[in-house]
């Protein structure tokens, strides 16, 4: 098998470092380049504690795409920069695999259109942990029969966006399967602003941020005399790597954008 050449945007971040490690552990992947604004010019392996890899960080995705010959761009950066990175990659004929959260429904529609125009494959996955993907799919199925639902997501306190990308995708899958109605007491009032969480198509999404947490979510369903809880915990960032590996392999076969790992799994 030919080795797939990969640029990692955000390679010095919590997720990016894990992706670099995963690339180094797979014979059919090659680290073509890595992007870090703060580490530009330094050897990626030396910065992240691998020993020299003889690939230096570039300071921007634009520079990395111009400098390195690559097939795939893996992006774990920020909600503010990810859309531009995807656009640059597709325009350069490089296929994006995106984990960065914070893209709006409109952003995703625009990127879908760009990929369609260019015949480019791309994968945007709000969560690469296979267990989290199953949680989202099962929650969508449960909402058909138990439409009273609340989502509680909990993350580390370095997270920039709320609700998480996973909670948003879960809410979308629930809304696709649940007839829309405003649940809870119609006369309820918040004594403290925000106490009932964010409102999405008739139900609520709550975000917890604490040091010590990684990435966790509970989807709670209630019906007369019964409760169903679907829970997933990522205990470390290695949990996301089988999904990232699968997406890198799969994106080369696609000619359109796929939003959600559930769409490339055999479920
Ligand atoms: N889909 C999934 O399964 C998962 C998604 N995520 C998402 O991934 C994203 C990153 O998370 P995490 O690794 O924890 O975050 P970090 O803050 O640890 O890493 C982000 C990295 O991106 C770099 N960066 C920031 N802006 C730019 C830019 N404009 N161009 C290039 N690099 C940039 C940062 O700084 P510098 O450039 O100085 O190096 C940093 O190294 C978040 O949106 C998070 O929600 C996280 C876990 C799993
Ligand atoms: O920021 C994180 O850490 C995570 N972000 C993703 C999200 O927003 O859902 C995926 C996972 O929850 C970890």
UniProtKB/TrEMBL annotation:
Residues annotated as the enzyme's active site: 155, 159
**Any one annotated GO CC term:** cytosol
Recorded catalytic activity of this chain's protein:
(S)-2,3,4,5-tetrahydrodipicolinate + NADP(+) + H2O = (2S,4S)-4-hydroxy-2,3,4,5-tetrahydrodipicolinate + NADPH + H(+); (S)-2,3,4,5-tetrahydrodipicolinate + NAD(+) + H2O = (2S,4S)-4-hydroxy-2,3,4,5-tetrahydrodipicolinate + NADH + H(+)
A Pfam family the protein falls into: DapB_N
Q: Where does (S)-2,3,4,5-tetrahydrodipicolinate bind?
A: 156, 165-166
What Gene Ontology molecular function terms does this protein carry? Answer: 4-hydroxy-tetrahydrodipicolinate reductase; NAD binding; NADP binding; oxidoreductase activity, acting on CH or CH2 groups, NAD or NADP as acceptor
* Full protein name: 4-hydroxy-tetrahydrodipicolinate reductase
- Write out the residues that bind NAD(+): 10-15, 99-101, 125-128
User: What does the record note on quaternary structure?
Assistant: Homotetramer.
| Function statement | Catalyzes the conversion of 4-hydroxy-tetrahydrodipicolinate (HTPA) to tetrahydrodipicolinate.
The highest taxon in the source lineage is: Bacteria
Looking up SUPFAM superfamilies in the UniProt record yields: Glyceraldehyde-3-phosphate dehydrogenase-like, C-terminal domain, NAD(P)-binding Rossmann-fold domains
Stated family: Belongs to the DapB family.
Whichever gene encodes this chain, its name is dapB
Q: In which pathway does it act?
A: Amino-acid biosynthesis; L-lysine biosynthesis via DAP pathway; (S)-tetrahydrodipicolinate from L-aspartate: step 4/4
Protein keywords: Amino-acid biosynthesis, Cytoplasm, Diaminopimelate biosynthesis, Lysine biosynthesis, NAD, NADP, Oxidoreductase
PANTHER family per the UniProt record, alphabetical = 4-HYDROXY-TETRAHYDRODIPICOLINATE REDUCTASE 1, CHLOROPLASTIC-RELATED, DIHYDRODIPICOLINATE REDUCTASE
Stated EC number for the protein is: 1.17.1.8
Into which EC class is this enzyme placed?
oxidoreductase
Where is this gene product found? Cytoplasm
Q: What range(s) does the Dihydrodipicolinate reductase C-terminal domain occupy?
A: 131-265
What residues bind NADP(+), as annotated? 37
Which BP terms from GO are recorded?
Answer: diaminopimelate biosynthetic process; lysine biosynthetic process via diaminopimelate
* Boundaries of every Dihydrodipicolinate reductase N-terminal domain copy: 4-128
